[in-house]
Amino acid sequence: VIGRVLIGVSEAAINKIPVIGAIYRTVKQIVDTFSKENTAVFQHAVLIEFPRKGLHSIGFVTGSVKGEIAEGIGAEKINVFVPTTPNPTSGFLVMLPKEEIIFLDMTVGEGLKLLISGGAVAPAAAAKKTAEHDGGENAGQ
User: Fold this and answer.
1) Considering 20, 23, 57, 73, which has the largest number of Cβ atoms within 10 A of its Cβ?
2) 8 A C-beta contact, residue 77 and residue 66
3) Can you say whether the dihedral through the CA atoms of 118, 91, 110, 9 is positive or negative?
4) Mind listing the pLDDT tens digit for each residue in 42-74?
5) What are the phi and psi torsion angles at 39 (to 5°)?
C-alpha cells in the first residue's frame, strides 16, 4: 500500500513537469499497452541482425509465418516486428528462420523501455552485468 502511494505521488510530481511529464505519460502508455500479458501481441524480446549483417536491432516475436506467405516461402519462418526509436508504433516486419534469432532473457516491457529510451534505460540484468564488467562505474545508467 505504501509503495502504491509513493508511486502515485512520484507520478503526480513527474506529470507536473511540462516537457518531462508529457514524455513520461506517452512512454508509460506505450509500455503499458504492449506489456499487458493478457493481450500479448509481442511474445518475446529478441535480437536480430538488422538492417544488415553485423548490425543488431531489438525486435519482438509476433508469431510464426502462416498462410499464403508460409506456402510461398516454403520454409518455417518467425515474424519479428522491429520497432523504430523512440516511437515503437511504427517499424518493420521481418520474417526470419529461428536459427537467425537470439532470444533475450529480458521481458517485452524491458525491451520496449530500452527501445523508447534509445538505449539509455537498460534492463536491470544488463545494467548489473555492465556494473560488474566496469567495476560499478556505470551502474544505474
Assistant:
1) 57
2) no
3) positive
4) 889 999 999 999 999 999 999 999 989 988 988
5) -120, 40
The grid coordinates of residue 131 equal: 556494473
**CA-based nearest residue to 46, from 87, 97, 120:** 97
Average pLDDT, the chain: 82
- Owner of C-alpha cell 514524455: 23
**CA 4/CA 85 separation, integer angstroms:** 30
Confidence bin at 115 (pLDDT 50/70/90): confident
Count of beta carbons in the 10 Å neighbourhood of residue 122: 19
Instruction: Of 21, 35, 44, 30, give the one whose Cα is nearest residue 85.
Output: 30
**What pLDDT score does 100 carry?**
96
pLDDT at 79: 95
The Cα–Cα gap between 97 and 31 comes to: 27
**Is residue 12 a contact partner of residue 18, using CB atoms and an 8 Å limit?**
no
Distance CA 90, CA 57 (A): 14
